[in-house]
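Protein modeling request. Please complete all fields; requests missing the sequence field cannot be processed.
Requester role: graduate student
Desired output: 3D structure, token encoding
Chains: 1
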Amino acid sequence: MINKKFGICILLVFLLSGLTACSPEAPESEPVVLAESPLGSPITEGTLEPALSAELSFGVSGLIEELFFKEGEVVKAGEIIAQLTSSSTIEAEISSAQFEYLQVQQALADLGLYAAVERGLALQTLINAKDNFHIAQEDWDDYEIDEYEDDLGDAQEDIQDAQTDLDEALADLKEYLNLDEDNRTRKRYQDYVDDAESDLHQAEQDYSDVENEYLQAKLDYELAAGQLAAAQVEYDKKQDSSDTDQLALLQAQSDALEQTINGLQSRLASSQIVSPINGIVMKNDLKKNEFALAGNPFVMVADPSRWIVKTNDVSEYDVVQIQEGQIVLIQVDALPEISLQGSVDSIDRVAYLDQGDVTYPITISIDEEVDGLRWGMTVSVEFQPIEN
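Delivered output (388 residues):
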């Protein structure tokens, strides 16, 4: 009896299948329109997402040196999640450049701190240089050039006379050189020669003294003039800054070091993954000592304390009934006991084409903090009527 009933059931199934296959082709589907609540408000579905999240990657490729956070661990904004082997070298270069930069900044500060002292010293040097120049100028103006030329001429004549006397003494001595050195006559004429040589040397020294006195007076004047000019230049420099040349040099060094530090910090940022927010490491696909390609989103961080709902099936017919700030009731499918309230945060201005249907993605902010929510959970959303 049971087998007979089972056979009849099978037969009915085949008959129904045949009837379905022979039915006329179903008409094309109409545009999707959201269901409505009893109050006439649009109802749709959406998915939960953290309000703050970030997919993170390295800016350059390289070997992974260190992992500081695992999946599920809490991370704060600014903390390093992972870094490449190049990071340590770059950090050392940054420390060295920053130390040198601080030294240059200190030198600039010292230059400004002692500017008044240096200006005072420069002024005192200028005053002394002017006094010395005036003395040297007076001495030079008082110097008698004509008298100098006469004295020089007389000294030159004395040299010539002394040379003549020496030549005559040598000629006289020549007649007695065949005598013994102890011979009185030879010794007397030798003394004449020695005296003549001494007179010649004295005449040459007198000539040199006359000439040196003139040169010294001229040198004193020119040196005083040069010192005055140099003191004036240094004093003029100190009027605008403690030392224009030194200031320009230090400022150039400071600018160059600042550019170097910025470049190194940019390189360091590319070799590290740093959390931009406070949150939890949702994903970390990195492994120590493995090679990581630049741009691949290995790490995801999110803040689970604030959630949003994103919908993407609100049609063009329903979007006109929705506006930013509108109250929304939210039911989490996996947690039916939880009912949430939110508001429309934004409505995309550009439509999304879904299998021929025009829809507008909408973002909804959830006003409450609820435990147990997870990324990607499905929710039902009911847009509440707008009060007039």
